[in-house]
């Protein structure tokens, strides 16, 4: 697994069982830092997740609308119930985003690949949220629905059980 | 799923990595998806696949489900983040370099390489504006002294052709990383069972899968692998916006998958060096017995090298498994199970070139051909085949002894192989 986290943090913030539960129970994702530009990484992830059936609500003060969804300046302005807050912002901004995630009653705080903030994690954990860090929602979804395998990547899934969707 | 906490062993992954039994039919063996193309689910998904926003199958020149099983399996065995299979080992090298480099870039390579690689690096890469400089790999200071501002990668073979030298991978990885460049290792002769270069710091690994990975001499194939640890942000071809994909930045968007995504979606797509799914199936069959075969390959090779070393008609044996070989210490570090099953030796004769021919003609079990890494034992005499147009002096300049024989030790009964070599040596004029 490619990560900058140490062994203890990996166990805590990258648990495959927790990731699969999150992917199967989440319906609405607020994506903080979702870019309206088609070639940006956040746009790739949002496009993928929207096709896979998730509702993706953009949180970006610089955008009006992304992928057909109205964009909000911050999490507190989003009127809908949010299951997961997915963060594409600099780690310095994460503690404040975590506080807002707690305030709006999100169930999960998910920081993208290389977005690492232990302070943000502690804020969210203390309020009972699931926290995932230094992982990509698209990669993890692709790992467990089998599509990441199709591009030759090492999913690290070893099983002799008949194939099914793993969440 | 408690198994996710478990780190499964090499042999388990040889049999299971990259393959979940088919959900519809339950087929246990890996099916051969002999298809060129794949029906799209809908127009949105099709568009997203072409933009690389979805992972999925488009066209077998880019990916294929049978090939994907081979790719994920070898990636698992090499402790890589992923793999791209290619039509041959040469294509794997070409794909790696075309993905990484731009015209004007240079590579610094070990001089102990397969001859075909030297030719590709020297002549074909020159046409692409890429220059390769060669260095004697045995001294790390020689490598350091040869690095220039244009050097963009270090390159070598785990077990070097033809003298069986062992690459000091850890020292070279440190040197490469101190200069912010990747170390690329061709690990064909070792296979991940004997050595995993990524565990020693190598960034990219290439294989001719034609050899021990397939293991049965029936399919030409290659593969390239990425550790996923190297920072490619200063490599323009991977980091800069790609005009063919609406300005997509592969490294920023795909992170540790960036190199491999670019290799697949651009280089292999455009050069067309894709692996056939039927060959991928045969390679998967090979991988399932890799550890068993390699154990026997190195066991037979060690016994035969020792036998030849003690034989009165043999002048020298170049196998790092022998205690007085100059690479023995490195072999113990990097290939503790045995330094492969391919090595060279010299016949003691007044006319070594003629003696080499005579020896080959006298063999009964060794197949005389230009390949290595087959289940069967193989032999070639460079001075009468691949290098026959060169004089003895020219051969010597190229590091090839006129009496040099290369063996690739197979899985036959050891006593039969020893018998064959002995009777052929006895039949050879002194």
Question: In words, what does this structure look like?
Answer:
The complex is a heterodimer of chains A (167) and B (430). With 167 residues, chain A is an alpha/beta fold. Chain A has a single domain (7-150), classed as Rossmann fold. Chain A is built from 7 helices and 7 strands. Chain A has helices at 7-13, 16-25, 41-51, 94-103, 118-126, 137-145, 147-150, and strands spanning 28-32, 55-59, 65-66, 69-70, 84-87, 108-111, 130-132. In chain A, helix 3 links the parallel strand 1 (28-32) and strand 2 (55-59). In chain A, helix 4 packs parallel to helix 5 (118-126). The radius of gyration of chain A is 15 Å and the shape is globular. Chain B is an alpha/beta fold. Chain B has 2 domains: 7-287, Aspartate Aminotransferase, domain 2, CATH 3.40.640; 291-426, Aspartate Aminotransferase, domain 1, CATH 3.90.1150.10. Chain B has helices at residues 10-16, 43-50, 65-77, 89-100, 115-127, 140-146, 169-178, 191-194, 236-239, 250-254, 258-271, 277-287, 290-309, 328-334, 352-362, 392-397, 414-426, and strands spanning 82-86, 106-110, 131-135, 151-157, 183-186, 204-208, 222-226, 241-242, 248-249, 314-318, 342-347, 367-368, 378-380, 404-408. Chain B has a 7-stranded mixed β-sheet, sandwiched between helices. Chain B has a 5-stranded mixed β-sheet with strand order 10-11-14-13-12. Chain B has a two-stranded antiparallel sheet with strand order 8-9. In chain B, helix 1 runs antiparallel to helix 3 (65-77) and helix 4 (89-100) crosses helix 11. The model of chain B has no long low-confidence stretch (mean pLDDT 95). The interface between A and B is large, with 37 and 55 residues.
């Amino acid at each position: 697994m490619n990560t900058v986290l140490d062994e203890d943090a990996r166990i805590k913030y990258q648990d495959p069982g927790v990731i699969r539960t999150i992917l199967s129970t989440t319906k609405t994702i607020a994506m903080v830092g979702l870019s309206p530009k088609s070639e940006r990484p956040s746009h790739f992830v949002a496009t993928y997740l929207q096709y896979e059936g998730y509702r993706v609500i953009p949180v970006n003060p610089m955008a009006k609308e992304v992928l057909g969804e109205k964009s909000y300046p911050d999490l507190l302005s989003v009127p809908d119930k949010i299951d997961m807050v997915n963060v594409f912002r600099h780690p310095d901004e994460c503690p404040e985003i975590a506080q807002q995630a707690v305030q709006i009653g999100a169930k999960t705080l998910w920081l993208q690949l290389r977005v690492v903030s232990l302070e943000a994690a502690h804020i969210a954990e203390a309020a009972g949220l699931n926290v995932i860090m230094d992982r990509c929602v698209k990669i993890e979804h692709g790992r467990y629905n089998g599509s990441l395998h199709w591009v030759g990547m090492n999913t690290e899934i070893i099983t002799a059980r008949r194939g099914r969707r793993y969440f | 799923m408690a198994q996710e906490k478990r780190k499964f062993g090499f042999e388990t992954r040889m049999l299971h990595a990259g393959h979940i039994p088919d959900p519809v039919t339950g087929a246990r063996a890996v099916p051969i998806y002999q298809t060129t193309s794949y029906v799209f689910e809908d127009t949105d998904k099709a568009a997203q696949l072409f933009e690389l926003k979805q992972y999925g199958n488009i066209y077998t020149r880019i990916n294929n489900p049978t090939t994907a099983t081979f790719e994920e399996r070898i990636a698992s065995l090499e402790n890589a983040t992923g793999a791209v299979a290619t039509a041959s080992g040469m294509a794997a090298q070409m794909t790696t370099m075309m993905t990484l480099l731009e015209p004007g870039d240079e590579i610094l390579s070990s001089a102990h390489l397969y001859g075909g690689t030297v030719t590709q690096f020297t002549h074909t890469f020159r046409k692409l504006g890429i220059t390769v400089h060669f260095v004697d790999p045995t001294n790390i200071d020689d490598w350091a002294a040869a690095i220039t501002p244009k050097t963009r990668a270090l390159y070598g073979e785990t077990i070097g052709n033809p003298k069986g030298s062992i690459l000091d991978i850890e020292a070279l990885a440190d040197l490469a990383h101190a200069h912010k460049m990747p170390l690329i290792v061709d690990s064909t002769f070792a296979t991940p069972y004997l050595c995993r270069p990524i565990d020693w710091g190598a960034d990219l690994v290439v294989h001719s899968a034609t050899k021990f990975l397939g293991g049965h001499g029936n399919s030409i194939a290659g593969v390239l692998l990425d550790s996923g640890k190297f920072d490619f942000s200063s490599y323009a071809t991977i980091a800069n916006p790609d005009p063919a994909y609406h300005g997509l930045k592969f490294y920023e968007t795909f992170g540790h998958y960036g190199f491999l995504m670019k290799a697949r979606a651009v280089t292999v797509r455009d050069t067309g060096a894709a692996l056939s799914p039927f060959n991928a199936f045969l390679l998967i069959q090979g991988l399932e017995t890799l550890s068993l075969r390699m154990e026997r390959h190195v066991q037979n090779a060690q016994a035969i090298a020792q036998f030849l070393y003690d034989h009165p008609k043999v002048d020298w044996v170049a196998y790092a498994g022998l205690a007085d070989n100059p690479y023995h210490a490195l072999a113990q570090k990097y290939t503790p199970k045995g330094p492969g099953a391919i090595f060279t030796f010299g016949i003691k004769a007044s006319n070594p070139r003629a003696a080499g021919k005579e020896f080959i003609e006298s063999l009964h079990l060794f197949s005389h051909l230009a390949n290595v890494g087959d289940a069967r034992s193989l032999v070639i005499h460079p001075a009468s085949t691949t290098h026959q147009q060169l004089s003895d002096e020219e051969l010597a300049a190229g590091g090839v002894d006129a009496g040099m024989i290369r063996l690739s030790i197979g899985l036959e009964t050891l006593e039969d192989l020893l018998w064959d070599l002995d009777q052929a040596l006895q039949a050879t004029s002194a």
